């Protein structure tokens, strides 16, 4: 029997509007469009689908050995052996492993840091560097809702996604100089000076991604001084400590300069690259505070932000990191292995540059060896990159970023020849 209008009105007040009879369950999400492909992950998908025996992937953001194979460090394997069966599988606290955090802070701030001794650092274990950045972005939005973040041009593309989804307004500052393939130091300093006082800036501590261009020590000192003048807040993303130069202390120099100058800082650490723990999502977020009381308050709020996101961080990667960094012999082995990875990357930079020069390229390739870290910003145009892919089966992101981890003694001559072919007419 049909429902009367009066009865229908009563039902709607009690139960909400009636659904159209034709609505199906699928129609709830019929308006959802496929997301755009991630530009980096899309490169790997295309590479895997290519049947060519000559194909080369220099888009991957993970270390490979000279045979192009993934690497598990010996120090990691030994740490796994020690960890196996040694603990239960209970939850970590919301803030993560205390031991891992302690070792991470010593790595970033210095073994004998006064800030660690004075308990002025609020720190939590994070889901690698990405999770650390996201926690900080949400913290920034919650407690400084009127602030914005200045992000370098260019930067790792996910930085924009992180602060966007945390609903923090973004601005950019000059960083890369395309003509010199180096740092736009003048533009960078102008943007720091012109930013509103008390602005937040995202800085890459070392091995800038994607350009491989880092300020010199003297330039870092000038940047730090200008931050002091303008009372800006520096947030460091340190994804490559040890992996850039082979020396973790050297790679933390920018952070140490800012600390010496009296800045309060934030820092995102990751163990994906420098320990090869990509899939373990092991990282740390730290914020230097005024005093211990403030640090306790800030840490409690970081934990509250983490609670509804993922409740608490994973255990296994934290155990590996704390075992390696907390044991002198294993730490010594790690330092040897991370230097070996860095040296291989540096060696491939030299080999690629020399191969291009031997081919008689009229272009300058000095930037290949001047840049540092996993990535080389080659200066090639999107059209030239397309030719590399279509004609030579070489895969990289269209901004010309070469992952030096994908370059080996077996393919460097082929890669150089292909680059020479697509760039020699320009």
From TrEMBL:
It comes from Triticum aestivum. It holds the Pfam family Aminotran_1_2. The keyword Translocase does not apply. Gene3D superfamilies: Aspartate Aminotransferase, domain 1, Type I PLP-dependent aspartate aminotransferase-like (Major domain). Residues 54-419 form the Aminotransferase class I/classII large domain. Keywords: Aminotransferase, Pyridoxal phosphate, Transferase. GO terms for biological process: amino acid metabolic process. InterPro entries: Aminotransferase_I/II_large, Asp_trans, NHTrfase_class1_PyrdxlP-BS, PyrdxlP-dep_Trfase, PyrdxlP-dep_Trfase_major, PyrdxlP-dep_Trfase_small. The keyword Oxidoreductase does not apply. One of its GO terms (molecular function) is L-aspartate:2-oxoglutarate aminotransferase activity. Homodimer. Coiled coil: none annotated. This is Aspartate aminotransferase. In eukaryotes there are cytoplasmic, mitochondrial and chloroplastic isozymes. CDD domains: AAT_like. Its EC number is 2.6.1.1. Its cofactor is pyridoxal 5'-phosphate. It comes from the Eukaryota. GO terms for cellular component: mitochondrion. Belongs to the class-I pyridoxal-phosphate-dependent aminotransferase family. It catalyses: L-aspartate + 2-oxoglutarate = oxaloacetate + L-glutamate.
């Amino acid at each position: 029997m049909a429902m009367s209008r009066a009865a229908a009105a009563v039902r709607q007040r009690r139960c909400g509007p009636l659904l159209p009879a034709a609505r199906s369950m699928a129609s709830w999400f019929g308006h959802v469009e496929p997301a755009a492909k991630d530009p980096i992950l899309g490169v790997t998908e295309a590479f895997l689908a290519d049947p060519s025996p000559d194909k080369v992937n220099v888009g991957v953001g993970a270390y490979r050995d000279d045979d192009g194979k993934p690497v598990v460090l010996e120090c990691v394997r030994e740490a796994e052996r020690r960890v196996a069966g040694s603990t239960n599988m209970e939850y970590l606290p919301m803030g993560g492993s205390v031991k891992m955090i302690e070792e991470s802070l010593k790595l970033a701030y210095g073994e004998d840091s006064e800030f660690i001794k004075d308990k002025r650092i609020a720190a939590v274990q994070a889901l690698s560097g990405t999770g650390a950045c996201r926690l900080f972005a949400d913290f920034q939005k919650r407690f400084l809702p009127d602030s914005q973040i200045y992000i370098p041009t260019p930067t790792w593309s996910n930085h924009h996604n992180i602060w966007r989804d945390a609903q923090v307004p973004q601005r950019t500052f000059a960083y890369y100089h395309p003509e010199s393939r180096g740092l736009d130091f003048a533009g960078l300093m102008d943007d720091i000076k012109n930013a509103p006082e008390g602005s937040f800036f995202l800085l890459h501590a070392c091995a800038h991604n994607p350009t491989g261009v880092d300020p010199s020590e003297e330039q870092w000192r000038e940047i730090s001084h200008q931050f002091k003048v303008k009372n800006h807040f520096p947030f460091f993303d340190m994804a490559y400590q040890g992996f850039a130069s082979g020396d973790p202390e050297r790679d933390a120099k920018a952070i140490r300069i800012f600390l010496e100058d009296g800045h309060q800082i934030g820092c995102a650490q990751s163990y994906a690259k420098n320990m090869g723990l990509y899939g373990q999502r092991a990282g740390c977020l730290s914020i230097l505070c005024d005093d211990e009381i403030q640090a306790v308050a800030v840490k409690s709020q970081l934990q509250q932000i983490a609670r509804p996101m993922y409740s608490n961080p994973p255990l296994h990667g934290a155990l590996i990191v704390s075992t390696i960094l907390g044991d002198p012999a294993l730490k010594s082995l790690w330092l040897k292995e991370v230097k070996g990875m860095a040296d291989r990357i540096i060696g491939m930079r030299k080999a690629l540059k020399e191969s291009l020069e031997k081919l008689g390229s009229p272009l300058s390739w000095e930037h290949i060896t001047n840049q540092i870290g996993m990535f080389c910003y080659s200066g090639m145009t999107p059209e030239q990159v397309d030719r590399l892919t279509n004609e030579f089966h070489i895969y990289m992101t269209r901004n010309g970023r070469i992952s030096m981890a994908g370059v080996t003694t077996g393919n460097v001559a082929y890669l150089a020849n292909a680059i020479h072919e697509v760039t020699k007419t320009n």
